[in-house]
């Protein structure tokens, strides 16, 4: 029986992968590791290893210890910083006999750093919001002068990190300056033209340059979005299956601009501009998004497809590679509530209105 090690166990992105893998018929053993004890203890993994954060100098030694003790057949990471560090350590990881299924290190670097992605996309003619690197207060002033909308607003965010890290829509220079100071973010932030709140994500798996499967999801709202200045939390409250030829084309163009031979997981986040065109904002590289279990319950288990390719060289037989799920399926999530797979019609059939 094969053994799979999942990093970030107990956290939402990893746990949805683990739940998907536990529904597979091959009954692989799923082991978890994580750096946050209060998350890790909640994991459904059969074993739960505590490990330092990826930025810790002891991370490499502890990771290799776990790999040498457990001898997993495959290890998979679900956090940008940890993915980047694991990619740096890939030769050491592979030397333990454990498999990886991820893009080249250069591709991972270019995707984890959103500023690098933006430079590549602009050079390749991909339509994105105008974006400036913010190294100094003078750069910040320039961003406001050249990128502000009718209300003078721009979009600030950290170059690295998920969950809307450092995201801030603002037209207040002094507040923006203090915001970057708070994150110690000079040289690690970008300023961009402000797009709309409408977003879409194209999650895909590739193998040696060939598309295996892709599914689109629209985000209708964020969990706890009213608790952040940006409205972004990285945790989707309501997601909806969706299909669009325009989105399919733009997503693939964005991927091929960065990687001519895609291999692994590529989740293209797009935000619509005021003309209704989706603009790529980042590629979540080598990881599934937080609602991967949505697709699993709807009938498309992408973590299963991923591990079947990595472990057994088995590929799915799908009528459609792109958007095999029907449009209009909703995935509803809330704190301490079981998620619900439904449709808008089913919701209003059950609700009572006087």
TrEMBL record:
InterPro entries: ATP-grasp (IPR011761). The keyword Amino-acid biosynthesis does not apply. Transmembrane segments: none annotated. Keywords: ATP-binding, Nucleotide-binding. GO terms for molecular function: ATP binding; metal ion binding. The keyword Nucleotide-binding applies. Residues 118-311 form the ATP-grasp domain. This is ATP-grasp domain-containing protein. It comes from Aliarcobacter butzleri. The lineage of its organism: Bacteria, Pseudomonadati, Campylobacterota, Epsilonproteobacteria, Campylobacterales.
